[in-house]
Design goal:
The structure holds 2 protein chains of 2 kinds. Chain A is of the alpha+beta class. In chain A, the strands form 2 sheets. Chain A has a 3-stranded antiparallel beta sheet. In chain A, α4 crosses α5. Chain B is of the alpha/beta class. Chain B folds into 2 domains: about 100 residues, Alpha-Beta Plaits, CATH 3.30.70.120; about 160 residues, Rossmann fold, CATH 3.40.50.150. Chain B has 9 helices and 14 strands. In chain B, the strands form 3 sheets. Chain B has a 7-stranded mixed beta sheet with strand order 10-9-8-11-12-14-13, with helices on both faces. In chain B, strands 2-3-1-4 form a 4-stranded antiparallel beta sheet, with helices on one face. In chain B, a hairpin with a 3-residue loop joins β5 and β6. Chain B is elongated, with a radius of gyration of 24 Å. Classes of the chains: A alpha+beta, B alpha/beta. Chains A and B meet through β1, α1, α2, α3 and α5 of A and α1, β2, β3, α2 and α3 of B.
Amino acid sequence: MAKKIKAIVKLQIQAGKANPAPPIGPALAQHGINLMQFCKEYNARTSNRMGEIIPAEITIFSDSSFKFNLKSPPTAFLIKKAAGLEHGSSVPHLEKVGKLTRKQVQEIAEIKLKDMNANDIEGAMRQIEGTARQMGVEIEG
Amino acid sequence: MEWIEVALSVDGEAAEAVAELLQRYGHQGVAIEQEDIPPDTWDDGEALPPQRLTIRAYIPADSRAEDAKLRLEAALGHMNMMYPMPRPVYTIVQEEDWAEAWKAHYHPIRVGRRLFIRPLWVEAEAKPDDITIMLDPGMAFGTGTHPTTQLCLEALEDHVQPGLRVLDLGSGSGILAIAAAKLGAASVLALDTDPIAVKAAGENVAQNAVAEHITIQEGSLESLVASARRFDLAVVNILAKVIIAMCDQHLGDVVRPGGMALFSGIIEDQADDVEAALRRTGLQPFARRQQGDWVLLEARRPH
């Protein structure tokens, strides 16, 4: 059981609705993993959170077996939820579509910290502020 | 039906915003793949250092595709004013039956003299004295395609005698336990700490009609040492690091005096360290098998 990692793919998909259509089919079939087994397991583990985007991080091993972990919702999804937005801005440098307070940024950072490449909450907050600005969301204070 | 794959290679900082943008245009979501995973990356629970990521989304190649591409590029152009953005790469992807496509990666394989591993859905003619193992590859390691598994299968074929009590420690898909039972072992205990592997092994064991000889349990070495159960033959296909740690937790005790053990999942240059650890736990290494960089160690527990 020597688990050498061949690929790591994160899918940002709707909870409870995994199926073999894109992006799941083409992203996973090329690695030779049992696609329907992934879909079945993902749906079973996420069906109680319908309506959310729940990323699944799939680690594919050298013999094409795999495992997956569920991750916290994407930062962009949490920013939109906190700012009450449907979408980010298409012209983020010109048109600001929403605002977040520092406290909201901190709340998002606390959710995301375990899945981020950040050393501490301050580092996580800076990354989240960067993502927010690229979406046309301003930070107050 | 055709799809257009939109792919962008970005760093970790741009990834979230680009994924959010593609999520708007792509069918059902996006896939984010880590680029350039170093060839010797082990699943040891440590996070990989930040790498570049490829973000992919898929749009149907229909009359609205051009419009979607234009809007996407305009949005990327705006984002580029704040943070450098690469140009998207478009590839036409033919619709296939993705649910079945992965199966093309698997073919029946022959290991050792008589072992014949065949995916469940492949009709293949076995030779009269073949020992066939049917597998449905899935979430548990051990599909028969990896050198570490093949080394174990060959060693089992040489050492399993009718009537033996066998331990498969870190049983994964159950392939080695099934092979041992089909080679004549009276009883096999298949132990894994991962509940998903335990479930997969259960299904594979039932598929191969050897359930009466195999017990599958979720559990660790610790519980086994405490149970005082001893085996004629143990097969441990995990990783050098894990085997060495287990040696310091009395791994040798689970083999009866005069019994044998097989250790796999070891890279050539780790073999000396594993041998030293085996001696510390009261086992005597006496033979090595090798396939490519991979080594299997055979050891005996003295009387």
